[in-house]
Write a structure and sequence with these properties.
This protein is mainly β. The chain has eight helices and 45 strands. The protein is globular, with a radius of gyration of 28 Å.
Length: 686
């Protein structure tokens, strides 16, 4: 009987162990993780966790190399750099060169003497990027500036701006309606700003794509707005577009942008366009590497490369200054790093990772912090970051990388080494959860000169990093906090309830109007079943001024700054307009055998400058091998493993920098789906 009881007990224990192991595996934790967390009360190092995750793709190394993920090669070149490479694949010019060639043709027309104010040449969509724009070209006898106004359906919807003073004019026309005979008023202005001549012209546009035509529904409008045009882009709104105060489409780009769309206006009115097709492999979503700097006409000035990709933010550190960029360390983690880029060279001049800040604290996933905004404060040389997975807004000394303070529910950091940095609430209030778009504003919104104000979008979502203090409210909020940095305290000044938007989204405060905008990018419970919405409120009274539904989800929405003076001057082609960093192939002395098979048309190639683009599904390629007569190199991505099935075979152009290869005659081989192939590609580098 005792033996039977003992046997039963052993069976029960065995079953219990199997159940625990099964539950542990189901949560991607494993028995060792359960042991770490519940027995010895330690967080499992992610280096252990990563081995337990599902992996999708191919990772064979034909040539054994050590290719560090943080290896970066600085690039400074132009399209003409491709002349040094004789290759049997197509060479494709950058959009910068294409813009410059068009701009030279516009200049030639302007200088031709054929066109007058009475009979100008009006070029629709001059740079073939923005169909609701145009340029008027003509000459005048006297130097004058020109004011261009696209007449809106209402006076408040007029879009207007003034070009530079000149005799030869290229006048930007922004904000045309699609599928319309638009009325455009041009006015000549003297030195005192007085109108000396004026004339109306008709500019006819074609219909916008259906996705753009159906993108917006006006729910409520006052007929006016603090913002002339609001740009919407990213996520399902892959074709960026802009709306006016009535919710009408007044600008769109005729090509798709990447997941994060267009990045908000720089101080000179230009914007950054994320190229959808070009990405580098990552642990989850492939990361965009190529960004164009362009204006609202679609004229492109520079191409920037970012070696480990960009997510969520490209923003000026200071007006006209360096760029602050959110990137990924790729050291088992992504969306966890901040870098400062020299604007003129593309070099990384400052760099910080979440691991450097927090070590292994809360290091429980690939995307364990999920940084989604960064901005700079010049008065104390600090940056402000939003870490969604930590439910925290964090201020950091940008030179020393020392923490200044953390805005978060204090219980989250209680008992950690970082508890001392958490701001103390002056009273009970509702904290944010999984927030986006945290920025420090320069205005004094609470009347207290001893505090600084921080706006943020509180998604109030508890899926990614669950916390026990979640109040289960399916509502998002536009929040404004006041922080007394000297005393280390925080108070909540504004808490406007919004559509529940579980990810993306942003809050924007406009000082000139004292309005606050809620850009709800991923709505779940709207009655009209739209994916996004935009609200404009009076900051003091919280009176709703405008409301628009956006059919698809979006990443962010923001105010367009229009620099007519910049757009009305001739384009200057910079010496090295292609700049930045990319992961280079590494040189090897290993023996490289010639493959016996040749790959078919599953992949394709092209060259821009000295960057070779491989078009292939994500993580099907693990190595590209360059075998020269005297030198051998390997571009290796076998250490970067895909852990999200939905991104596996996400087709991209993968950029491979050839700038570091020594002059030689090269044959190109590839390891594709763990099979070693000839590609038929060969080149000579001079």
């Amino acid at each position: 009987m005792k033996k039977a009881n003992k046997k039963t007990t052993l069976i029960c224990l065995a079953v219990l162990v199997v159940i625990m192991a099964g539950l542990g595996y189901w949560k991607r934790r494993g028995i060792r993780n359960i042991f770490h967390q519940y027995v010895i009360d330690r967080i499992v190092p992610f280096t252990i966790q990563e081995k337990w995750l599902d992996t999708y793709g191919y990772y064979k190394q034909e040539v054994k190399v050590d290719a560090p993920v943080d290896g970066e090669l600085n690039i400074l070149e132009t399209d003409a750099s491709a002349d040094a490479i004789d290759i049997n694949v197509p060479k494709e010019d950058s959009l910068v060169k294409k813009s410059y060639e068009i701009d030279q043709m516009v200049t030639a027309e302007m200088e031709s003497g054929y066109y007058t104010f009475e009979e100008p040449l009006i070029i629709n969509n001059p740079y073939e990027m923005a169909p609701l724009t145009a340029v008027a070209v003509f000459e005048t006898e006297e130097e004058v500036s020109v004011r261009a106004t696209v007449k809106g359906k209402t006076e408040a919807a007029d879009v207007t701006g003034e070009s530079v003073k000149a005799k030869q004019h290229r006048v930007p026309i922004i904000g045309l309606y699609p599928d319309t005979d638009n009325t455009v008023l041009l006015e000549l202005l003297d030195d005192h700003g007085e109108v000396v001549a004026q004339k109306e012209y008709t500019v006819t546009t074609s219909s916008a794509p259906k996705k753009v035509r159906k993108a917006v529904k006006t729910i409520n409008t006052s007929g006016e707005s603090a913002y002339g045009l609001i740009m919407v882009s990213g996520q399902e709104s892959s074709i960026p577009f802009a709306i006016d105060c009535n919710g009408d489409i007044r600008w769109y780009m005729d090509r798709k942008a990447g997941n994060y769309g267009l990045f908000q206006s720089l101080s000179d009115g230009r914007i950054f366009y994320q190229v959808k097709e070009v990405n580098t492999p990552s642990f989850e979503r492939p990361k965009a590497t190529n960004f164009y700097e362009m204006d609202l006409l679609g004229r492109v000035y520079n191409l920037y490369y970012f070696a480990r990709g960009v997510h969520h933010e490209v923003i000026e550190k200071e007006p006209g200054g360096n760029l602050l960029v959110l990137t990924s360390s790729m050291e088992l983690h992504e969306e966890d790093a901040i870098m400062e880029i020299d604007r003129s060279t593309g070099e990384v001049v400052n760099y910080l990772t979440s691991y450097e800040l927090f070590g292994r604290q809360y290091e429980t996933a690939i995307d364990f912090t999920h940084l989604n905004t960064v901005s700079y404060n010049a008065y104390d040389d600090s940056i402000l970051i939003s870490a969604r997975e930590l439910h925290s807004v964090i201020k950091i000394d940008w030179t020393t990388h020392e923490l200044k303070w953390i805005l978060c529910e204090p219980d989250f950091w209680k008992g950690t080494d970082f508890e001392k940095y958490v701001l103390k609430p002056t009273e009970d209030f509702q904290y944010q959860l999984a927030q986006h778009s945290a920025y420090q504003v320069t205005e004094d919104l609470d009347g207290n000169p001893d505090t600084v104000e921080v706006t943020l979008y509180d998604n109030h979502y508890n899926k990614y990093r669950k916390v026990k203090w979640y109040d289960d409210e399916k509502t998002s909020y536009a929040k404004v906090f006041s922080v007394n940095e000297e005393e280390g305290t925080v108070s909540l000044n504004k808490n406007i309830p919004l559509d529940w938007s579980v990810i993306t989204s942003n809050t924007v405060y406009d000082a000139d109007s004292n309005h606050i905008f809620a850009m709800n990018g991923n709505c779940k419970d709207r009655e009209d079943e739209c994916g996004g919405s935009i609200f404009e409120y009076d900051y003091e009274t919280e009176e709703l001024i405008n409301e628009f539904s956006i059919k698809g989800t979006f990443y962010r929405a923001w105010n367009i700054l229009m620099n007519y003076e910049d757009m009305s001057t001739e384009m200057v082609l910079e010496d090295n307009y292609i700049r930045g960093t990319l992961r280079p192939p590494v040189e090897t002395t290993e023996t490289i055998a010639e493959p016996t098979e040749t790959i078919g048309d599953e992949i394709s190639w092209k060259l821009t400058g000295q960057v070779l683009y491989l078009n292939a599904p994500d993580h099907d390629m693990s190595q590209v091998i360059f075998k020269g007569e005297n030198h051998k190199y390997v571009y290796d991505s076998s250490m970067i493993r895909q852990h999200e099935e939905k991104y596996y075979e996400f087709v991209s152009d993968i950029p491979i920098a050839l700038q570091g290869l020594e002059p030689d005659n090269y044959e190109v081989y590839i390891v594709y789906k763990d099979t070693y192939y000839k590609t038929g590609v060969s080149f000579t580098k001079q």
